[in-house]
Design goal:
globular; 9 helices; single chain; alpha/beta; Rossmann fold
């Protein structure tokens, strides 16, 4: 990450790239990381995402960016689901201000994908979404909020003593944002969903729920693939091909 922007008072690390020789409006893409899972802690989130952003920009002609949500990587602040939603909304504003893209495409992994569809459903600037190993809901976090909060502290996503001021308010967002309902509202805009058949963190049934709610999503369940699809060449090839088709069809 070599850049930053401010979201609700927190400085967030980001990586932004324009395609070579850009002399006209082009589509913009934002890549969103997921919630940290072992063995990585929050400070290591999205370490390889700038490489994928560079590839998409140089190969396909997108203005592209990725960033660390609050509490992760080099970004300031502490994790909250509402805060991450606010961060993505701000990131879209930043991309639009910097690049004036012809359209915005959101790509997200795991929690980042779930947040992406929740934000995209209510933002007409977002013309398409790609979700890799997304959650269908946050009900497991909501069921045991204090236990989950302690986990976020252990991995470094919550760093400030005394945060949050109210655990009840902090956890309400887990029920407030409903990815399946958001997918239904996002339709008929294009949506790609992918999942690893051997994902041991999020069941691939979640992806099917999201695809069914949308009604016309492209669905790929990859045999033998695990949770981190970012590191599966098949998943990256599917994503690159989908983004290329969007561009060539002038949908974005």
């Amino acid at each position: 990450m070599n850049d930053s922007f401010v979201s609700c008072g927190s400085s967030l690390a980001c990586h932004y790239v324009d395609p070579p020789g850009r002399d006209e409006r082009c589509p913009g893409m934002i890549l969103c990381h997921g919630f940290p899972i072992g063995p990585l802690d929050a400070r290591s989130s999205a370490g390889t995402f700038p490489q994928l952003v560079d590839q998409i920009s140089h190969q396909l002609g997108y203005t592209a960016m990725t960033f660390n949500f609050r509490g992760c990587g080099e970004s300031a602040g502490d994790f909250s689901l509402q805060g991450w939603v606010d961060d993505l909304r701000t990131a879209i504003d930043v991309l639009v201000e910097r690049a004036d893209p012809s359209a915005v495409v959101l790509v997200g992994t795991n929690t980042g994908g779930s947040i992406a569809i929740c934000v995209a459903a209510d933002d007409p600037r977002v013309r398409a979404t790609a979700l890799l190993s997304p959650r269908a809901d946050f009900d497991d976090w909501a069921a045991h909020p204090r236990r989950f909060l302690e986990h976020t502290r252990e991995i470094g996503a919550v760093r400030t003593p005394g945060f949050p001021a109210s655990v009840d308010e902090w956890s309400r967002a887990f029920y407030r944002f409903r990815p399946v309902e958001a997918a239904r509202r996002f339709a008929p805009r294009p949506m790609l969903v992918m999942h690893g058949e051997d994902d041991d963190s999020v069941p691939h049934a979640d992806t099917r729920l999201l695809a069914q709610a949308h009604g016309d999503a492209e669905l790929s369940v990859l045999s033998g693939a695990g949770h981190r699809l970012r590191h599966d060449p098949r998943a990256v090839a599917i994503l690159i091909g989908w983004l290329d088709r969007l561009r060539n069809a002038q949908f974005v």
